[in-house]
Amino acid sequence: MRNPFLSVLLSAKQKTGERVSSLNLLKIFTMIKLNRAGQAAGWLLVFILMTGYCQHYFAYNYFYAEQFYLFRFDSDYAWQTLSQPGGVVTYLAAFLTQFFFYTYAGAVLSALLFTMIAWQMSRYWKRIAPNILAPLFYFLPSVALLWIQTDFNYHWEGTLALWISLLMLDVCLAVRKNLFRWVITGVWAIFGYYFVGPYGLLTVAGVVMADLFTKQTSQKWWALCLLLLAGIVPLTLYYKDIVLEWRFLLTSDVYYHSRLNPPAMLAYAGWACLLNLTAACLLSRKTFSAGRWGRICLPVAQIVLLAWLMHSGSLRYNSVKNYEAKTLDYYCRTGQWQEVLDFPGLRSDRNMMHACYQNLALSHLDQLGDRLFDYKQCGPQGLVLPSNRSVNASTLLSDIYYQMGNVALAQEMAFEGMIASERAVNPRLLLRLIQTNLIYGYDNVAEKYIRLLEQTLAYADKASRYRQFLGHPEKMKADPELGGRYACVQHLSGLTNETQLIPNLEQIIHSNTSWRPAFQYYGVMCLLSKDMKAIRDFIEHTKGMSGMKPMPRLFQEAVIQVHEGEEEVWADYGVTPQVAQRFKAYRQAVLSARRSGQMYGLQGSYGNTYWYYYMFRR
């Protein structure tokens, strides 16, 4: 590609026939440097703006995506990954996503890839159609990737594969001699496909189209042979039964969860690249005279349109519902329980998963039995949602059961979540398997998982902390986290499953009479079900146990509900004078409201009591 400043120089020389002075050459090269500096500043600005945009709109997508990769600094892992078709880009993607664990890292890396892909595409245009300024086209592949990255079933291998393929396209086009360029492209057509997958074919397509449209010699038709070379590896993988479906060989479906049907937007990035390659070639010999203002207004208009398109698509494809779930998952994983309760998108009266996150947070803050009705509820299923064998539900249920002290079900749900994960790895669930196996005394199994996580960057310290308990049950029993849960299961007998939750909780509170989370979950299940017999049994069975001291406020209100006409026994169960006095005021308020017909007025003063819930809530 001829530099425009050098073109001016040659033109001037031809017209005048005079030698350009060294002073003029200095001015021209200074202009070239300024032009390059301006371009570098522009791309730097794009990177900075995209980093801020990604952090603001997609931050929790990166935290969530990190959980589905487990990069290990281990030679066996490297060999097993790199030896597979597409293993190079898979290995690089796992290496990259491990940094998503850290705040801002996901946004920075995503914006960097976004900018580099757009930059590579702009270089193709400058080589093929230097007279056309088309930022709208440059950025389309990056925008499409930005959208698909909001889907946690998408593989980040696709983003890296596209960038590497465009980088190789730039390298191939930089080679001026046809034979050398074709040799390099042919080698990439064979080995590059094995490294990065179907996106590697874009490199071959770009070289072939560039030669056919821009070269004037008859030799250019030999470039079509590269297409034959590009088909060797896909055909071999298919007929050797290594890859059984054509869509995983020739389309972007390979960069998505293999057991799911990919959305249409998965293909947008690939088609956007083909659109760029075709448009640049078709316009390679065109010249447009837009005038001074046109050269300014047309790019600005394209950038404005691009920004609108990107943001509209982000709002559409970054599902609010899914993003809220990812946010709550992050708060739960990092123990930010007050942030869960303060989350503005919490819909605990209509969404069982939101209610479970909310009530789990209350339990960790030791407020479940006191502040349950300070927040909206959706019934007993807002404590333990039904299992659907998905990663999200299984992980949340594992956390809930672990908090209850039901170690067996916590371990079962961790296994369910691992199985549901496409790669059967999840660092959070591996930590749970370490915890549960240490509690049960299966040190050899726990050590296997500890060894795996010690080979990672973000989880090595957490895993190493548990190594001290291997072969030392006395240390495990003295540990606040593991020891309390060991006491919960120490005297349990028989098998367990999800349908035996209440009997399991009964055994847990008798095995460990000081484990408050089990008491509170058992109690609020009875309250939310409005089963007076279950409430009465719970009150009688837990009377005087240390896990009920001090008795949570809602349980005191339940005692009064059960023994309403026996005020003399209230104090024996732990009812405080303040709660007793509030009940009397509530009873008087109900009588007054019935006479006036304004029952709705009770909610303001008594909406967070069990008495109000029992009488007026469904």
Question: Can you tell me about this structure?
Answer:
With 618 residues, the chain is mostly helical. The chain has helices at residues 4-16, 22-66, 75-82, 87-97, 105-128, 135-148, 157-174, 178-196, 201-214, 225-230, 232-239, 247-250, 268-282, 291-317, 320-333, 337-342, 352-364, 368-371, 391-404, 407-420, 427-440, 443-454, 460-465, 473-478, 480-489, 501-511, 516-529, 532-542, 553-562, 570-573, 577-596, 602-606, 610-616.
Tell me the fraction of residues in β-strands, as a range: under 5%
Number of helices: 33
The end-to-end span amounts to 74 Å
Overall spatial form: elongated
Q: Mean of the pLDDT scores?
A: 88
Low-confidence stretches: 12-20
| Rg over C-alpha atoms, rounded to the nearest angstrom | 32 Å
Global structural class: mainly alpha
Tell me the major beta sheet: none
Fraction of helical residues: 55-70%
- DSSP E strands, number: 0
Q: What's this entry about, in short?
A:
By secondary structure, the protein is mainly alpha-helical.
Which key features would you list for this structure?
single chain, mainly alpha, 618 residues
Question: Topology of this protein?
Answer:
Elements: H1 4-16, H2 22-66, H3 75-82, H4 87-97, H5 105-128, H6 135-148, H7 157-174, H8 178-196, H9 201-214, H10 225-230, H11 232-239, H12 247-250, H13 268-282, H14 291-317, H15 320-333, H16 337-342, H17 352-364, H18 368-371, H19 391-404, H20 407-420, H21 427-440, H22 443-454, H23 460-465, H24 473-478, H25 480-489, H26 501-511, H27 516-529, H28 532-542, H29 553-562, H30 570-573, H31 577-596, H32 602-606, H33 610-616
Helix pairs in contact: 2-5, 2-15, 3-4, 4-7, 5-6, 5-7, 5-13, 6-13, 6-14, 7-8, 7-9, 8-9, 9-13, 15-17, 17-19, 19-20, 20-21, 21-22, 21-25, 26-27, 27-28, 28-29
